[in-house]
């Protein structure tokens, strides 16, 4: 129990820390979903709001993680497990709700603050949009084929080993373990129960491919002041996150394959080793993501280049699309044919909610997310 509680407390703190650091990892040119003139992107007032957001989010994660200490006093394992499961979901939702509310309050303050700023020369002289027509031909991401093949090799090996030893699999085998690491739920051997986890692994391939596709096809947002360097940074940014997708897809499949083999081949297996494996996997993914975010920022804006290539003024003023970003996070522009766009707040991609394809993708991902229930 103490291992699980320690893991959940660490998870809460990491969620709070990563969320709190979001303003420091995203674009300088659009803080809290509001595009900013370059003269004000390092303004002390803006820095103050960024620190406030970080403090509120981290503090909320600390406070909501404290109740886990109370569970260590409960001696009823069954009751504790149920309470822990409920509170884990509720607690994470609460941390995200607090950070979301803090974001909305500061977003409104930044929007009002921007309206009261004196107009800059950039705004008075109009805005430029720079597009590199052959951008997609320069190898911005890893091929989806590589992700599919590498994942299928792992899944095929696991499926073959499972099929080869199907007769040796016990007629009942554990599929769930309690917080005391003892099996408390079993399944009767059948093709569905034995190969069900492998079907989930196949579904995961689709999710990873969609993620990599969005990285490659998200709309460009280049800096008109030095378009060539901006394009290079953007390309390196996408390549780095595409490699991240490949690595995480392989690690995820290996983790799920380990669970598959342990579940069907060993009866009454001690699952504690898998908890350690999951903790290691989680830490690796989070640290990897933080390193990339701090190094590249959103769009590669924070990437440091050689002095000969670096812009004289790295603070960028991009095309002002505030009217299309609802609350600074939801992009809705019927005139834009793009389906994928880079986020205004944070690192990664989102969709243009004015396109029907975006809604189809969202519905499709939700269906994929819940489809594993068919194999339970």
Task: Sum up the structure in keywords.
mainly alpha; 376 residues; two-stranded antiparallel ribbon; 11 helices; globular
Which secondary structure elements does this structure contain, and how are they paired or packed?
Elements (H helix, E strand, L loop, with lengths): L1 H19 L1 H4 L4 E2 L2 E2 L8 H22 L1 H5 L5 H39 L5 H4 L19 H21 L7 E6 L5 E6 L2 H27 L9 H39 L6 H25 L28 E2 L3 E2 L8 E3 L6 E3 L4 H15 L6
Antiparallel strand pairs: 1-2, 3-4, 5-6, 7-8
Helix pairs in contact: 1-3, 1-5, 1-10, 3-5, 7-8, 7-9, 8-9, 9-10
Fold and architecture overview:
The chain is mainly alpha-helical and 376 residues long. It contains eleven helices and eight strands. The protein has helices spanning 2-20, 22-25, 44-65, 67-71, 77-115, 121-124, 144-164, 191-217, 227-265, 272-296, 356-370; strands at residues 30-31, 34-35, 172-177, 183-188, 325-326, 330-331, 340-342, 349-351. The strands form four sheets. It has a two-stranded antiparallel ribbon. Strands 3-4 form a two-stranded antiparallel sheet. A hairpin with a 2-residue loop joins β1 (30-31) and β2. α1 (2-20) packs parallel to α5 (77-115) and α1 runs parallel beside α10 (272-296). The radius of gyration is 24 Å and the shape is globular.
């Amino acid at each position: 129990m103490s291992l699980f509680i320690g893991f959940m407390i660490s998870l809460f703190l990491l969620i709070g820390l990563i969320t709190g650091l979001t303003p420091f990892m995203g674009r300088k040119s659009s803080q809290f979903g509001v595009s900013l003139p370059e003269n004000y992107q390092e303004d002390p007032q803006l820095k103050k709001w960024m620190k406030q957001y970080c403090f509120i989010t981290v503090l909320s994660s600390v406070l909501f993680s404290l109740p886990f200490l109370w569970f260590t006093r409960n001696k009823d394992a069954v009751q504790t497990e149920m309470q822990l499961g409920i509170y884990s979901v509720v607690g994470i939702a609460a941390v995200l709700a607090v950070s979301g509310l803090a974001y909305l309050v500061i977003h409104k303050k930044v929007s009002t603050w921007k309206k009261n700023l004196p107009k800059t020369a950039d705004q008075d002289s109009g805005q430029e949009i720079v597009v590199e027509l052959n951008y997609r031909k320069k190898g911005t991401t890893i091929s989806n084929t590589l992700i599919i093949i590498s994942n299928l090799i792992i899944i095929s090996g696991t499926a073959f080993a499972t099929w080869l030893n199907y007769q040796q699999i016990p007629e009942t085998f554990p599929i769930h373990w309690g917080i005391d690491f003892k099996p408390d739920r079993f399944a009767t051997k059948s093709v569905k129960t034995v190969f069900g986890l492998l079907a989930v692994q196949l579904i995961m391939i689709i999710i990873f491919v969609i993620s990599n596709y969005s990285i490659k096809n998200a709309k460009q947002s280049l800096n008109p002041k030095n378009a060539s360097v901006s394009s290079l940074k953007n390309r390196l940014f996408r390549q780095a996150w595409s490699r991240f997708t490949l690595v995480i897809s392989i690690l995820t499949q290996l983790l799920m394959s380990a669970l598959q083999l342990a579940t069907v081949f060993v009866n009454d297996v001690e699952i504690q080793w898998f908890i350690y494996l999951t903790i290691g996997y989680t830490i690796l993914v989070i640290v990897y993501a933080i390193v990339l975010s701090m190094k590249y920022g959103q769009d590669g804006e924070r990437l440091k280049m050689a002095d000969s290539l670096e812009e004289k003024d790295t603070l960028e003023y991009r095309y002002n699309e505030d009217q299309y970003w609802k609350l600074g996070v939801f992009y809705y522009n019927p005139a834009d044919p793009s389906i994928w766009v880079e986020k205004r707040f944070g690192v990664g991609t989102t969709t243009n909610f004015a396109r029907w394809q975006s809604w189809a993708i969202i519905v499709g991902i939700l269906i994929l997310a819940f489809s594993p229930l068919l194999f339970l």
